[in-house]
Amino acid sequence: MWESRFPAKQMSSREQETKNPAEPKPAPPAPLIACPECDLLQREVAVPLGGTARCLRCGAVLYRSIRHSLDVTLAFLLAAAMLYLISNIYPMVGLEAQGVLNHTSLLGAVHALLEQHLQIVALLVFVTAVLAPAVEIGAMIYLLLPLRFGRLAPGSALVLRTVGKVKQWNMIEVFMLGLLVSLVKLMKFANVVPEIALWSFAGLTLLMTAAAASFDQHGIWRMVSRRGSAETESIS
Amino acid sequence: MNRYLPTAKDYGVIPCRACGMVSRPAPTAEVQHCPRCNARLHPRKPGSITGCTAFLAAGYILYLPANLLPILETRSLDGTQENTIMGGIFSLWDSGSWEIAIIVFIASILVPLFKLIALTLLVFSVRGRLLWRPMQRTKAYRLLRLVGRWSMLDIYVAAILTTLVQFRFLANIEVGPAALPFGAVVVVTMIAAMQFDPRLIWDPVKEKGDRHE
Questions:
Q1: H or E segment at B158?
Q2: Reduced to 3 states, what is the DSSP secondary structure of residue A172?
Q3: Which residues of B touch A178 (CB under 8 A)?
Q4: Model's pTM, two decimal places?
Q5: What is the average pLDDT across B126-135?
C-alpha cells in the first residue's frame, strides 16, 4: 500500500505574486489536519488511489483514498441490509434431542435472557448485536444513497456523527464468533442443526466489514460540508 | 529529529473530534461548536483522566465477581454443575476442543486483564507526565481500542446456550450470576478506553523536547 508522509508546514500561507493579471489565482493552501492521536498539526496532501495518509510523528491513519468509495460502500451496505433482515427473522441454529428441535433466532436469545430476569444483559446483547448494526447500516444508507445521486439528505452532519459513535458498539463480528463457539459447545449435548440465519450472519459480518473498509469518512465529510448550507470558516 | 513539531494546541486551534475540521475558537469562555458539523469543540477530551480512572476502578471491582461467580449453570440428570468462565475453559479443553478453549481464554480472561492493566499504566504515565516511549504507548492504546469488544464473546455464547439447551430430561442451561458483572466489565473498560485521550501521551513530549521512537 502506498504511503505518503508529508511534512508539517507552518500556518502562514505561502502567497505568490502574480505578474500577469490574466493568470489564475494561486490555489489556497491545503486544509489543516491535526492528528487525532498525537495532535500534530499538518496539511492535507493528495494521496494516490488506494493509498493512506499517516501522521508524520505517530503513524496514525489520517485518511485514505479509496477507489469508487461511494459506490462500493453503498453496494455492500444494501446487501448487508438485506442479510440483516434475514438474520433477524430466521433461526440461527437448532439443537435436536429426544425428538424435539429447539431452535432460536437472535431475538429469541434476547427473549430467553429476559425470561431469566437478566434484563440488563439482554439489553446489552440487544444493543450490541441488533440495534447498533441496524443503526449503522440504516444511517449510512440514509446518508450515502442521496449523495450517490448528488443530493444531501437533511441532517447529514448529525447522521455522520452518529455513525462515528455507533460503530464502536457494533459487535456483530464478535457475535459471529460467539455463534461458532456455541456450535462447538452444543455438539457435546445433542444433534446440532445449522439454520438459515447462521449463513446470513456470516455473510452480514463479511459485508459490514467490507463496507467499513471501503467507507471514506474523510471524503464524505468533505462532500457533506461542500453541499451543505453550513458556512465553513476554516483556517487556511 | 530536533525539529519543532507544532501541535494544534500550540497554535490555539482545535480539531473537531467528530469531523476533523480544524478551527480557531472565538476568545469567549463558552464551549464552541465546530463550524462544519456543530459538534462541541474541546482541545483535549474534558475529564479524560478522571473519567478513565473512575471507569477503570469500576472495572477492577467488577472483575472479581465476573470471574469468581459462575457464568453458566448446567442442570442435568447427573446434578447441577456450575461453571465459572475459567471452569468453562477447562471443560472445553478436557472435552478435546482445545482450540476453542484458547479462543475463549484469550477473549474472556486475557483481553479484560490486558485492558485493565494497560489502561492503568497509560493513566499513570500521563498523570506523571512521563516521556517514556510515547510511540509504544500509542500503539498500546490502539490495541486496546481494537481488542476491547472481543470480550463480549462469552456473553453471546451464554445467551445462545441457555436458549437452546432446554430439555427437561437431558439438560437445562441457565445463565449464572457472573453474566451481569462480566458484561459490565466489558462495557466499562470500553468506555474507559474511549475516555482516554491519547494526545495526552504526547503533550509532555512536545514541551520537554523532541524525543519520539
A1: helix B153-164
A2: helix
A3: 152-157, 160
A4: 0.88
A5: 92
